[in-house]
Amino acid sequence: MPLVSTRQIVESVSARGAGLGAFNVITLEHAEAIVAGAEQAGVPVILQISENAVKFHDGRLAPIAAAVGAVAQLAAVPVSLHLDHVEDAQLLYQAADAGMSSVMFDASKLEYDANVAATRAAAEWAHERGLYLEAELGEVGGKDGAHAPGVRTDPVEAADYVAATGVDALAVAVGSSHAMTARTARLDRGLIAELRAAVPVPLVLHGSSGVADDELRAAVSAGIVKVNIGTILNVAFTGAVRQTLRDPAVVDPRKYLAPARAEMTTVVRHLLTVLSGAETGVQAS
User: Fold this and answer.
1) d(Cα 231, Cα 137) in Å, to the nearest integer?
2) Count of other CB atoms within 10 angstroms of residue 38
3) Distance of CA 125 to CAs 6, 77, 107, 130, 242, Å?
4) What is the distance between the alpha carbons of residues 242 and 90, in angstroms, rounded to a whole number?
5) Shortest CA distance to 100 belongs to which of 74, 69, 136?
6) C-alpha dihedral over 49, 149, 119, 226, to 10 degrees?
């Protein structure tokens, strides 16, 4: 199936009142597992490459983007490519040529006025090239500091921010944190509903690996559309690799990468059924 745009997927899923999974890709196996899980669930999916993943690949976006794009184009479900958590403007400028249809430009570490100015410039650049631009307001904790109610996204400020920047989607801080390996985060469902009422663009939940199934369902019901997921895939992948490598005779990477990819596929399928409203009985570990 040809690649589709993130805008198309977001709009179609949002119109159904469902949630959309956007999964972080680090290796080719990640992309293969995410697409396989989406095909098994029978729903669209977004493949995301973060700025940190690009750094892992020696700072080169083109090779990993080409590989992920090739996997996406063979998918039996709609798939889009997204460049995530971009702070470096030079990386942003590579997005269109690398096959991305959307970018999350992250100026959330800046003071409000500087964030607005940088994000507005990024959105104008993106829109001139037909790209969908996501931004963040508030502080999603985890990798870069503690998360506290005082840094959660304010609905009035969020509405002003969207109007001032022209972004197409907004990542909001409502209680989740990046890089969580336990699914114990509690979301502020009331705040999500307030943000949904105040903000005219789709809301995005980052740091969703630490959010349990019932919380994810509630977040979608309250107004979240796009749900970013990364760490939980790595937990599944690494767990399977550790299990296989208990056998010291295993030296062929295919022997441990195959079960790792299969575990990720299971997790992706389950999470997509949760977000889309379907159920399979498979539990994400």
Assistant:
1) 22
2) 26
3) 17, 29, 15, 9, 44
4) 37
5) 69
6) 40
96 is written with which tokens?
């269109």
Task: Return the exposure string of 228-243: e unless at least 16 CB atoms fall within 10 Å of the residue's CB, then b.
Answer: bbbbbbbbbbeebbee
Sketch out the chain's domains with CATH numbers. 6-276 (3.20.20.70)
Tell me if 21 sits within 8 A of 45, measured CB to CB. Answer: yes
Q: Which residues are catalytic?
A: 84
DSSP bridge partners of 103: 83, 133
Note the pTM of the prediction, 2 decimals. 0.90
pLDDT along the chain (285 residues), means of 10: 91 94 97 98 97 97 97 97 95 96 92 94 97 84 44 87 97 70 67 93 85 87 93 95 96 97 97 81 35
What ranges make up the beta strands (E) of 138-210? 169-172, 203-205
| Residue 229: strand, helix, or coil | strand
* Confidence (pLDDT) at 186: 66
Residue 266 is which amino acid?
Answer: T
